[in-house]
Structure formats: structure tokens, C-alpha cells
Design goal:
- The protein is of the alpha/beta class and 361 residues long.
- 39% of the residues lie in helices and 19% in strands.
- The protein has 2 domains: 128 residues, translation initiation factor eif-2b, domain 1 (Four Helix Bundle (Hemerythrin (Met), subunit A), Up-down Bundle); 210 residues, Translation initiation factor eif-2b, domain 2 (Rossmann fold).
- The chain has 12 helices and 18 strands.
- α2 packs parallel to α4 and α4 runs antiparallel to α5.
- The protein is globular and about 65 Å long.
Length: 361
């Protein structure tokens, strides 16, 4: 994607060919800060503090993190230790474990002296495959937006959190069809949930869409149901951090409520994901998907830009009030209209997913 006419991926190798460059997403939308990551510990911090975030991007970042670790010590014991440390940084997004497992499967059968070069090649392959998968998701989702067009009317799409190009290596998942529709000249408009408590919608999705020129409006998280009741939403498209083999969907907290509202109002609720986000080992999302509990400070404090242009973090709750901060919720498959994957669209069911991925039967 492009920022001020310059093409970017969300992660890439530095000019030295081994360090990793990332966009610090904690600084958006106020500034575009490019960080140089040179050690596995720095990458672990970047993942855990959400300088990089989004399930596909976390996986690619962890893969490159393991590359950095191997530059220091390519022994098997060190490799397994560093891989476990990276895998523990974020528990909900399955792409993280998937990427680490893929790297280890490749590297365990590689001679120690060849591991660094092999690791960089495999991490690059993971990144390139993510871009190709997301572009395919965009094409399959574009058909839904075309179908939602009505003569002389704008297509209104509601999304939650950020599932755009900065949540992946490029294109995004839920936003990929929107970018393609806009590029095609379709009159499309996006309702952007603010997505408390970290405001990934208000800060990241709005920044992305604005950078690309896509018409959008930021709304309070609780406004989506109202808009649906009044016919102002044609379809909902969200991303996901983990999908069960039965079609349950773990996504940013608040997604479940949007799915309930969409179901009540007969509005299609689609989930866009690469197949790397499917956890084929579990069937019950509510009981089996681990839900990350993040710091209460994310709820009790907010950071924004003041009138003079400086940034400030303020307390928004009374002193002494506690806060809970589950980062994700699970939307049962019965509320999901369907999945948009790199292989096409399918029902949110075991049969639907296996129809696209029969090798998983």
C-alpha cells in the first residue's frame, strides 16, 4: 500500500540485509515512525507491546525474530528457547504459533551452519505468501461488495478493529476487498468502529483508509447497532485472530456484539482471513481459544493529541476504580454469514471450511 505516494509493506529487511524494519503502530496516526529491530528481544517487545499487531503480521514478525536470534546463536537449544519465548508473546492469534512451528519444522532439519540463511529465506516466503493470500481475499470479497451495489446508492460497510494492510504484510484481510472496490470506482463508504480500549479503528483503520482516499466515518463502538436498525449498513466485514475448525471466530473485543446486531437486522456478517488463521485442532471457540487479558491501564487511560499538537495520556476513570481488559471475544459460527479466504468464500461450518481445504479432513 502507499503512504504519501510511497509504497510500503508493514515489515521489511533493512538495507543491511539482516535487521528488520517495522512501522511503530503505537505512534499512529500522529507520526509515522520506522523502527529498526536488530535482536530477538526487541522483536518480542515489539509484538507484546503491539508496535506490530494483527494476526498475520505477528506471524511474519515472529519468523523474522527467530532469524535475528539465530544470528547470535544457531544451536538447537538456543533456537528452541528463543522460539518458545516468541510464541509466548501473544496467546490468542494462532498465526504466531503457526509461523514459529513452520520455521522450526524447516530449521530442525537444517545444519547449524546453514540455519541463518535458511531462516531468512523461510521468513521471506512467509511474508510473500501472506501478501498473495490477502490479495486473493480481496478479490473474493470484492464480489460481495459488487453484489451489494444498488443503483445510485453508496455501499456502506461496517468494520471493527483494524484488519488492514498494517495488520498484515500488505493489503489486509477485511479491508482488502474495500481497497479493491474503491480502486475499481465503486462508491463505497466505511463505518469505522473506534474499537476501545486501544482505538485501533479510530487510529489505525481511519488512518489507513484516509491515506488511501477511501470515504469513511469513525463511530463510537456502541453506534453500530443503531446504524443497522436504520438501514445504514449493507454488510459487515471483520478480520480474525483465530478461527476454529467449526467456524467460531475470535476477534477484537466487541466483535460478538456487532455479530448479534447484524444477525438481528438481517445484515450479512463476513469474516476475512488467510488459512493460516484457522486452528484445525479446536472446535469450540468459547471454551478452547485462550483470551488475552491485557493491562487495565489500556482501559483507564487514553492517549491523544492536544490542541497545541502535543501528545498527552490522561486518566479517564475515577482513582481507585479497577478495570478488566479482555482483548478478544468469540463470535459463534451460527452468527457468521461466511468466511472469505484466499481460496474463496464458504460457510462458517466444518463442512464449509473443509470444502475449501479438503486436505484438512
Amino acid at each position: 500500500m502507499k503512504i504519501d505516494g510511497i509504497s510500503y509493506r508493514s515489515i521489511w529487511l533493512d538495507d543491511d540485509g539482516w535487521a528488520v524494519r517495522i512501522i511503530d503502530q503505537t505512534k499512529l496516526p500522529w507520526s509515522l515512525d520506522i523502527l529498526r529491530i536488530a535482536t530477538v528481544d526487541e522483536m518480542a517487545v515489539a509484538i507484546s507491546t503491539m508496535q506490530v499487531r494483527g494476526a498475520p503480521l505477528i506471524g511474519a514478525s515472529a519468523a523474522y525474530g527467530l532469524c535475528l536470534a539465530l544470528r547470535v546463536d544457531a544451536s538447537t537449544d538456543a533456537m528452541e528457547r528463543d522460539a518458545a519465548m516468541l510464541a509466548a508473546t501473544r496467546p490468542t492469534a494462532v498465526n504466531l504459533k503457526w509461523a514459529i512451528d513452520r520455521m522450526l519444522e524447516r530449521l530442525r532439519n537444517t545444519r547449524v551452519e546453514e540455519r541463518v540463511a535458511t531462516a531468512y529465506a523461510e521468513a521471506a516466503a512467509i511474508a510473500d505468501e501472506d501478501v498473495a493470500q490477502n490479495e486473493a481475499i480481496g478479490r473474493h470479497g470484492l464480489e460481495l461488495i459488487r453484489a451489494a451495489q444498488k443503483p445510485g446508492q453508496r455501499v456502506n460497510i461496517l468494520t471493527h478493529c483494524n484488519a488492514g494492510w498494517i495488520a498484515t504484510v500488505d493489503w489486509g484481510t477485511a479491508l482488502a476487498p474495500i481497497y479493491m472496490a474503491f480502486n475499481e470506482g465503486i462508491d463505497v463508504h466505511v463505518w469505522v468502529d473506534e474499537t476501545r480500549p486501544r482505538n485501533q479503528g479510530a487510529s489505525l483503520t481511519a488512518w489507513e483508509l484516509g491515506s488511501h482516499g477511501v470515504p469513511h466515518t469513525v463511530i463510537a463502538d456502541n453506534a453500530g447497532g443503531h446504524l443497522m436498525q436504520h438501514g445504514d449498513v449493507d454488510l459487515v466485514i471483520v478480520g480474525t485472530d483465530r478461527v476454529t475448525r467449526g467456524g467460531d471466530v475470535a476477534n477484537k473485543i466487541g466483535t460478538y456484539l456487532k455479530a448479534l446486531a447484524a444477525h438481528d437486522n438481517g445484515i450479512p456478517f463476513w469474516v476475512a482471513l488467510p488459512s493460516t488463521t484457522i486452528d484445525w485442532t479446536i472446535t469450540d471457540g468459547v471454551r478452547e481459544i485462550p483470551i488475552e487479558e491485557r493491562s487495565a491501564a489500556e482501559v483507564t487511560r487514553m492517549t491523544g493529541q492536544t490542541a497545541d499538537g502535543s501528545l498527552a495520556t490522561i486518566q479517564v476513570t475515577p482513582p481507585g476504580s479497577g478495570a478488566a481488559n479482555p482483548a478478544f471475544d468469540v463470535t459463534p459460527a451460527r452468527l457468521v454469514t461466511g468466511m472469505i479466504t484466499e481460496r474463496g468464500r464458504c460457510a462458517a461450518s466444518p463442512e464449509g471450511l473443509l470444502s475449501l481445504f479438503p486436505e484438512r479432513a
